[in-house]
Design goal:
Blueprint: H1 5-21, E1 52-56, H2 62-68, H3 82-95, H4 101-106, E2 115-120, E3 123-129, H5 133-147, E4 152-156, E5 159-166, E6 169-176, E7 179-186, H6 190-197, H7 207-210, H8 212-220, E8 227-231, H9 232-239, H10 246-259, E9 344-347, E10 360-363, H11 379-391, E11 394-402, E12 406-414, H12 417-424, E13 442-447, H13 450-466, H14 475-489, H15 493-496, E14 500-511, E15 514-525, H16 529-539, H17 541-544, E16 555-557, E17 568-573, E18 576-581, H18 585-593, E19 602-607, H19 608-632, E20 652-661, E21 664-673
Helix pairs in contact: 3-5, 9-11, 13-14
Length: about 675
């Protein structure tokens, strides 16, 4: 795991959960959820200020789980870390060689994925509801014993949990109540943060109480209970250690200490109860010049009897901390699960700290004497990332339709209206080409004015070049701005006039490493189609002899590089240049005459099953060739033919649609299962 994992790991996991959100379920689209978001038990563990979350409290049906793991390999994979292989072998043995719902239920899982994935500060937590917690715990223990995996068993009060070392991080695994909990924590403050990551210590305000997910679901009309978001502004706040929640601040400090590039972080010096100084007198802590508001060092009393009348706040560390209006106490014994509870402590901040010079609050895990509050990103990054996040603050995702044979999901990246309007203006001037057909092998359609898009990028990057980003994380944009001038200069003017692209492949086949069959068509929307034809004729001599005219009549060409067969059609009609291979002229002309309905910027559609079969054919050819080379060089015989192939899996048609809306960028995803492939395939 990279050293700077704290900033990227949560985002990677969010993307993983986003992919999960695009998978299907088996409920009716119009069925009302039986466990609405507002009443979800799982959301009680999620802090209200979490920067990212994906919740599926109603779970996914058993059919989904089986489909997700349908491609799980039957045989062990060679290579990789031996410890990981042993772990996989132990898991597979427990599952009977294949992951499926029946095996999961036998081991104590629900067979459904009733889960929530969220951040405690920046740290990721996954909670998965179980059917039989004791059985799952026994399963985990058997896997650890069989694989020899090194796991330390730790305790937080009565709760035990496993800790696995992963470079600078620690992976936490526990069965807590009805849930399996998996999280990642830095080594620093592991024992203090573990109760909060495992849910033993609930957040002061939960996401269930805040109702944010329910509000997002209502605002965007998501019908299912699978809803989530990534709050980019909150991510910056947490990385800058500006979050108000003391636990989030403690997380930030622990991550900052682990980063290694920041000044060493130390716990604040304090006395832990009556007699901490040896005589029961209050302890003293100096905060640096001016901390008291008059230039004198600030004082913080930690012992029993600390004043509640405007004097520095006290904190009782043992049993019996006050709850009667006296300064807030912090109990370290039983009642917090036996683990330390992180709480803010009162300290004098100087005039203006509380608006009136009264004592302010500071996290109990603050930096050492005279040091600033810890941060994962410096001031320049805070300002620049905050500015970017303000323009693109929130990514939301959820389900629109969930049925046995089709699932539709949607995500929206919210943007400020001015930026959304700029993006919408990049749409092509017309929709004159067909989108991918009902069931192609592969098809895409794009309506984007390339000249406007490049002008848009030039304007944005020119501003960056004049005022480069100071933040180290944004240096890639600086580099792009410096090289953009030469890059755009290399794009011919004829290419910049492209405003529409359509590609559809109906059928393809490989013979060894060579494309032996191809049937499909492609077309470009252009201001001056003959200009592009001139460029193509210069590249491929086979096209130079074709007498093409802008009259819509198809011209037959042969010997085109990269295309199998000798019968290809090319035509120019209006502002469209189109090419077809392996199909009759009638179908080609029908494509040219077609008009596309719908305003989307981009659409991609492909048959996941058929493309997978082509890929399998390719890898089989590679394996065969490697075996032949090995035999020739005396290294053994080629691999024996594989066992008889299993029955063809159900057809899976995947569709993605991208559009620019007044809210921002919208992506719609649809999965069709067991859809009938085109007869020509």
């Amino acid at each position: 795991m990279p050293a700077r994992y704290p900033l990227c790991y949560p985002l990677l996991l969010c993307l993983g959960l986003f992919c999960l959100a695009c998978q299907p379920g088996e409920r009716k689209a119009d069925a009302r959820p039986t466990r609405p978001l507002a009443d979800s038990r799982l959301l009680d563990f999620v802090p209200a200020d979490t920067p990212y979350v994906f919740a599926a409290p109603q779970g996914f049906p058993a059919a989904l789980v089986d489909r997700i793991w349908a491609g799980w390999p039957e045989h062990e994979t060679e290579g990789g870390e031996q410890a990981e292989l042993r772990l996989l072998q132990a898991v597979r043995k427990e599952l009977g060689g294949r992951i499926e719902t029946r095996a999961l239920k036998r081991l104590g899982f629900t067979g459904e994925l009733r889960l929530v994935f969220y951040g405690v500060g920046l740290l990721p937590v996954l909670r998965l509801e179980l059917a039989d917690p004791a059985a799952v715990l026994a399963f985990v223990q058997r896997v650890l014993d069989a694989s020899g995996a090194q796991a330390q068993v730790m305790r937080a009060g009565q709760q035990s949990y496993f800790v696995f070392e992963e470079d600078a991080a620690r992976v936490l695994l526990a069965v807590c109540g009805r849930d399996l909990v998996l999280s990642v924590c830095p080594q620093a403050e592991l024992e203090q943060l573990a109760p909060h990551l495992l849910g033993l210590q609930r957040p002061a305000k939960s996401l269930a109480q805040a109702g944010r997910l329910a509000e997002i679901a209502k605002r965007y009309g998501f019908r299912g209970t699978q809803v989530g978001f990534v709050d980019l502004q909150a991510l910056v706040e947490h990385a800058a250690c500006r979050a108000r929640d003391p636990i989030s601040l403690a997380v930030c400090e622990a991550l900052a200490e682990q980063e290694g590039g920041s000044p060493e972080l130390a716990r604040v010096s304090s006395e832990k109860g009556a007699g901490a100084g040896g005589d029961g007198s209050p302890g003293e802590e100096k905060r640096g010049a001016g901390a008291g508001g008059d230039g004198s060092p600030g004082e913080e009393k930690r012992g029993a009897g600390a004043g509640g009348d405007g004097s520095p706040g006290g904190e009782e560390r043992g049993a019996g901390a006050g709850g009667d209006g006296s300064p807030g106490g912090e109990k370290r014994g039983a009642g917090a699960g036996g683990s330390p509870e992180l709480a803010r402590v009162s300290s004098e901040k100087g005039a203006g700290a509380g608006g009136d010079g009264s004592p302010g609050e500071e996290n109990a895990l603050a930096r050492g004497r005279g040091s600033k509050r810890p941060e994962l990103i410096d001031a320049s990054c805070q300002a620049e990332l905050s500015g970017l996040a303000a323009r693109m603050p929130l990514l939301v995702l959820g389900y629109d339709r969930v049925e046995a044979q089709r699932v539709e999901a949607r995500c929206v990246w919210e943007m400020e209206p001015a930026l959304a309007a700029e993006l919408a203006a990049l749409r092509g001037p017309e929709a004159g080409l067909l989108a991918p057909g009902a069931h192609p092998l592969f098809g895409l359609w794009l309506s984007l004015d390339l000249d406007r898009a490049m002008t848009f990028l030039t304007d944005k990057l020119s501003r960056v070049e004049r005022a480069p980003y100071a933040c180290e994380m944004l240096q890639g944009i600086n580099q792009l701005s410096r090289s953009w001038g030469s890059a755009q200069g290399a794009v011919p003017a004829a290419v910049r006039q492209v405003h529409e692209i359509s590609v559809q492949v109906e059928h393809a086949a490989l013979e060894g490493f060579k494309l032996s069959e191809l049937r499909g068509r492609a077309a470009l929307g252009l201001e001056r189609p003959m200009d592009i034809w001139g460029l193509l004729a210069m590249v491929d001599p086979a096209l130079a002899g074709a007498q093409l005219a802008p009259d819509g009549e198809p011209v037959r060409v042969s010997g085109v590089a990269g295309l199998p067969g000798d019968a290809h059609l090319v035509a120019v009609q209006g502002r469209h240049l189109a090419v077809s291979t392996g199909e009759p002229a009638g179908a080609f002309l029908e494509q040219l005459a077609g008009k596309r309905a719908g305003p989307a910027i981009f659409e991609l559609r492909y048959d996941r099953t058929r493309i997978g079969s082509i890929w399998d054919s390719f890898t089989e050819s590679v394996t065969t060739e490697i075996g032949k080379v090995a035999e020739t060089e005396g290294q053994g015989k080629p691999p024996a033919p594989g066992a008889e192939k299993a029955a063809a899996p159900e057809s899976v048609l995947q569709t993605y649609v991208l559009d620019f809306t007044p809210q921002g960028i919208e992506c719609r995803m649809r999965t069709d299962y067991a859809a009938a492939a085109s007869p020509s395939s």
